[in-house]
Specification:
The protein is an all-alpha fold and about 80 residues long. It has four helices and no strands.
Length: about 80
């Protein structure tokens, strides 16, 4: 079974897309069992959705997007491993 730090690193770096199918299955299995990683993935997904939504609203304003990124990301607590 994978450890929490490996699962969170794969999700944060989007390395899961390039991972072999066995590793992707192992990550899914880990997420079925680990509530901490489930919460982390949910938070990471919602942050990404918020940033993408802000980029769609006004893509011509990179300063606004950068302010959103700086405002959101530091508030996200590091994953507990």
């Amino acid at each position: 079974m994978l450890r929490c730090n490996e699962v969170t690193r794969l999700y944060a770096s989007e390395g899961l897309r390039r991972a072999p199918w066995r590793k992707r299955i192992a990550v899914r299995f880990h997420l079925m069992m680990c509530r901490s990683c489930q919460r982390y993935v949910k938070e990471l997904t919602s942050i990404g959705d918020a940033v993408r939504g802000a980029a769609r609203e006004d893509p011509a304003d990179p300063e606004r997007l950068e302010a959103l990124i700086q405002g959101v990301l530091p508030k996200a607590p590091p994953p507990r491993v």
